Amino acid sequence: xxxxxxxxxxxxxxxxxxxxxxxxxxxxxxxxxxxxxxxxxxxxxxxxxxxxxxxxxxxxxxxxxxxxxxxxxxxxxxxxxxxxxxxxxxxxxxxxxxxxxxxxxxxxxxxxxxxxxxxxxxxxxxxxxxxxxxxxxxxxxxxxxxxxxxxxxxxxxxxxxxxxxxxxxxxxxxxxxxxxxxxxxxxxxxxxxxxxxxxxxxxxxxxxxxxxxxxxxxxxxxxxxxxxxxxxxxxxxxxxxxxxxxxxxxxxxxxxxxxxxxxxxxxxxxxxxxxxxxxxxxxxxxxxxxxxxxxxxxxxxxxxxxxxxxxxxxxxxxxxxxxxxxxxxxxxxxxxxxxxxxxxxxxxxxxxxxxxxxxxxxx
Length: 363
What we know:
CATH class: Mainly Alpha
CATH architecture: Alpha/alpha barrel
Helix content: 40-55%
Number of strands: 10
Oligomer: single chain
Low-confidence stretches: none
Number of domains: 1
Number of helices: 12
Order of helices and strands: HEEEHHEEHHEEEHHHHEEHHH
CATH topology: Glycosyltransferase
Strand content: 5-15%
């Protein structure tokens, strides 16, 4: 099974690769032509978990293209077309999602440079990126140490929740903020770069403030504390897997995920909310039980498995075994549902975010 999964990984990368106008390689989020641009967060996940399937110069050039599209205010692109037209928020020109750029663009740019540097050892290129990364991080809106989405004019937050109009302090981007601040600190220290901000202190402040989003009744964490004050399965799992926040709250969150496993997992894939729930507010209509409003995704399966290991290891094994069988027998979809509806096949984040644990557990 391990060899078959690795073959699938190779197929995904080969089929999602396409050429920009200048002949540079770009990587779409899927291998069937549904998404036809270079998306910042999907590219980050590919570099982070699929490095062995890439040429280093491909990863470097992808980073260059995205940074070259940075706006003068520091905002970085959500996605980039093969003609180098930058888009800063999802949706269409006629019907965009959110009032401004997606809040996670800068956070994933830090992360993709970090993983490129860690994999390639190319400190010179990494250092050259640091001013743009710092400018991008300074652009990210915050309040009380956490990433904050203006309730009067909300933007999309985390790209895999980009149709959801959550506002106030937001969980997932705050977790990404902590991760990116720590990564930026590590990179700056490695090359003796004089940072404009104390990113390490920002990370620690945000980590303490995560308590503002904890739901003491369920044990999970809210997606946001204004619009969409609902327990976020993905964010709760990511927090536990990254060992962020208060230790006691984190332990209760792991137990929440274990106790409610059957209410959010299906064939190794994970819904954003507990079964039967839908988001209170979205930028565009999203049918219940589909896509980001009840569809099941493999993007967070690694985080959920990691969290379950702390409270119910047998459920982590069940999750990963089910996911591997689904990939080999059905497909590697962006999302899917029990009624047969599903997103595009050969989806990068679906297989690469779970590849590390699937490869180690598959027989």
